[in-house]
Amino acid sequence: MLKFPVDGGIVTIRSIILIPAECATVTTSSKEILKEVEVCHENFKVALHPNFPDQEVAIEGTLLAKGQTELCSLLKENLDIFAWQPSDMTGVPRSVAEHRLNIQKGYSPVRQKKRGQAPERAKAIQAEVQKLVKARIMREVYYHDWLSNPVMVKKHDDSWRMCVDFTDLNKAYPQDCYPLPKID
């Protein structure tokens, strides 16, 4: 559900689980139902921040044209609440961002054997780690309890995404009460 203010009240956009791309109802706080006029069913992308034109937000095409413009203006008015680069995330309290591992009893920490990387991947890893260290999101630690290797995945634009191999940790972690559905 998404709510945002407009002239005459607050617009509430609800989506059903079966068809997440379509808005089920659009109502205002005065219970007036808007007619679907000027609906464009094609999604479009908008660059909100002038300093980061490559970072775009996808807007669903099922919104009314007026709703699309109001949503874009609402997002542009609140640019300061988004993290546009890793250094924007400093100052998050540890109580919010830090967590502990809920490991089942009987599992001892596993340190994966260090795997070497190709030179191109090693440079991408070094750049990503330096960016996170500079933003104070990551720091160097000693005496690792759980140590996992980075896994480099090629993105569609031929850049690299750094992931972490948590295979051993996932085995020691209790099963989720509400697992994700099978997506086949």
UniProtKB/TrEMBL annotation:
Transmembrane segments: none annotated. Signal peptide: none annotated. It comes from the Eukaryota. This is Reverse transcriptase domain-containing protein. It comes from Tanacetum coccineum.
